[in-house]
Amino acid sequence: MHESTDLRISDHPILDFGNKEDIPFTFDGHAMMGKEGDTIASALHAAGVKILGYHFKTKRPRGYYCAIGNCSSCLMIVNGRANVRTCTEPLKAGMVVETQRDRGTPDVL
Ligand code: FES
Q: Per CATH, the architecture of 22-98 is what?
């Protein structure tokens, strides 16, 4: 179970993030909110979700690592499609995002 936390940086001394549109999606059945311009993983990270999946053999938790689509540490099931690199996949309204625990089976705890 995940408890939502807002870790998004809204006030920065140099960068101006503006007022971006909210993007609703679900994560393992929970209603979540990202911002326009987020990837799936950045929206989850901003909400305090750091475990994006589990290694199919070792079952160790996996999360953000390279953040550029090279390492496969952020694979998740998105709209029923497994093995989506969520660090580079743009967040879209209504996306159904699920934890990936093996080579592509949805999280059905
Ligand atoms: S964090 Fe490396 S591919 Fe997504």
A: Roll (3.10)
